[in-house]
Amino acid sequence: MTQFLRFCIVGTIGFVVDAAILLALVSALGADPYAARVVSFLAAASVTWWLNRRFTFAVVARPSGAEWTRYVAFMTLGALANYGAYAIAITVSDFVRANLWLGVALGSVCGLAINFITSRAFVFGERRA
Known about the structure:
The chain has one domain. It is about 85% helix and about 0% strand. The protein contains 5 helices and no strands.
């Protein structure tokens, strides 16, 4: 349970990174909110990879590009649920479209369990201290 709570804390930080970058891209640069979400997700995934490997799963081995790639690949499963919920929410709700962070939050909750299970079993499981 402690590991899951740590994963949730890291996920909250990832949510802030995701939402902040999304809002900056859409508000400041006029980016499309669907395309901007891909960029913001990749940035958040990179931050959560680092924090999860150190804080959640206590990996002491050196980080590698292969580990990051595996993490992002498995996060794609959760990202599909995440992005799907986000896209549906901003498509059907003017309120959510006006408050994009709500769509990010909804998507994050939808991908949480998938991301935790795949991180624990397939990315960091064999590398933990």
